[in-house]
Fold this protein.
Amino acid sequence: MAIKEAVRPGGRSARVQEAVHQAVRELQAVKTRDELTVPQIAERAGVTPSTIYRRWGNLSELVADVSVERMRSDDDPADTGTLAGDLLAWGQQYLEEMVSVPGQRALNDVMASADSERRERCCRYSESLMEALHDRAISRGETPPPVRRLIDGVVAPMTYRLLYDRDSATAHNLQRWIDCTLKEGESGVASH
């Protein structure tokens, strides 16, 4: 049960994107954000700076694009045997990564992007992930709440807390959000 992929460019375009993304990741490992430049990235990626400007417009948009890809896992979420367990395993891993300095930078880069498509890709990824967990729960004989409820009850508060109140983006609160979401799903009534 693989998570649906966003459409990605193919051929030369895909090779250029991967080379540039890799160059950004490598340079971010040894330089501060303020030290990064488009010419450095272009040289490391083996492309011209104009290629980067044509495709991404500026350094901020390029870094935001790399950050969106960083947020998307290549692996299916862990199968723990229950929807509650799957949500907790995924959420704990996501919180751990996103409260880190690189994770916070990635969130900030995406939110600062002028390209709403990048934020929409994050939204589609979250929806796809919740659909995969929802479908897995159904295949095990569980009766999960609707995907929209999983997003509103688990993903939305996590995202809000990560962006605006990082200290409350905790495993304890994650467990509470999951419990409330699944309890509301059982009763069919959402509390406010």
In short: Residues 1-8, 188-192 have pLDDT under 50 and may be disordered. The two ends are 33 Å apart (CA to CA). The CA atoms of residues 76 and 138 lie 16 Å apart. DSSP finds nine helices and no strands in the chain.
